[in-house]
Amino acid sequence: MWSKNGGSFTSERFDQFASTYAFTEGYQVLCDIDTPIDQVAGANGIPQPGQQHSSGIYAHVNNIAPEQISPIMWQVIVGYEGVNPYTGSVEVEWTDSATSEPIDRDFNGRALVTVNGEPVEGLSFDLADQVCVISRTFIGIDLQAIANYRHAVNSDIFLGWPPGTAKLVGYSAKNTFKFGAPQELWSVTARIQFRKGLMGASDAQAWYKRYRHEGIYVNVGGFIQRARDLQGQEVTKPVLLKADGTQETNPDNAVWLYSKIYDSLPYSGLGLI
């Protein structure tokens, strides 16, 4: 019924398009006398609860109101409601995260060793990282694809931070729906931790594992053998090693190695911003 078709578009802000929808459609149903009202509401051609609006807009049937006009004719008003997922607000909050990390060198890059060259262990420092918490809604999400990001850092520039500095440390998604009805929007909250490269590491190595190059065995003339102390005795603790595996006796020249343990993925693919 063209005279019963209508709709409304509501926006929470004056400077954006509609954030909620409401539509109505009218139908006429001719039937036998004494046809039950539930059969009228479920007649052929009448949109049923949960059915999406024919225009493809994100609105679904949430109300069917039959009204008897004569013994054999009914008027059925179908109501739709929906939310525009593309105009919802995106909440971004910056906070801090402090962790205690083991330390094996000082601020100037010198290995933490005794005057006799023995490594000093058990020291730590407080590492403060920035954490961005982003909340927004989605029509749908791919949890398997998101799982890959839990073990990957950013390969692109994300929120102004260079590649290798961002890591997804939390992702929660809430969805409430009824069986037989379309899924409502997903409310997603993601936590991304940003870390600068410290103590000789570049920003690209911010999430690498770093360790001092040392060991009990050393390279002596191309042969690998047990390191010896100044008295010629085999050592029982690791000694510093140069890049070629020979023994390093100067702590100022200690070598640190970096191992990549996380994959790299474009964080723009998360669709958060």
Molecular structure report:
It contains 2 helices and 16 strands. With 273 residues, it is mainly beta. Strands 1-2-4-3 form a 4-stranded antiparallel beta sheet. The longest helix has 7 residues.
The total beta strand count reads 16
C-alpha end-to-end distance: 42 Å
Largest sheet entry: 4 strands, antiparallel
Strand order of the largest sheet: 1-2-4-3
Helix content: under 10%
Shape: rod-shaped
Count of DSSP-assigned helices: 2
Oligomerization: single chain
Computed structural class: mainly beta
Rg result: 33 Å
H/E element order: EEHEEEEHEEEEEEEEEE
Number of domains: 3
Report strand %: 35-45%
Low-confidence stretches: none
- Look at the structure and give the mean pLDDT: 87
Topology of this structure?
Elements: E1 6-10, E2 20-30, H1 37-41, E3 59-70, E4 73-83, E5 91-102, E6 124-138, H2 143-149, E7 152-154, E8 166-174, E9 186-194, E10 209-212, E11 214-215, E12 217-220, E13 223-226, E14 239-240, E15 256-259, E16 263-265
Parallel strand pairs: 7-16
Antiparallel strand pairs: 1-2, 2-4, 3-4, 5-6, 6-9, 8-9, 10-15, 11-14, 12-13
List descriptors.
273 residues; mainly beta; four-stranded antiparallel β-sheet
Short characterization:
The chain has helices at residues 37-41, 143-149; strands spanning 6-10, 20-30, 59-70, 73-83, 91-102, 124-138, 152-154, 166-174, 186-194, 209-212, 214-215, 217-220, 223-226, 239-240, 256-259, 263-265.
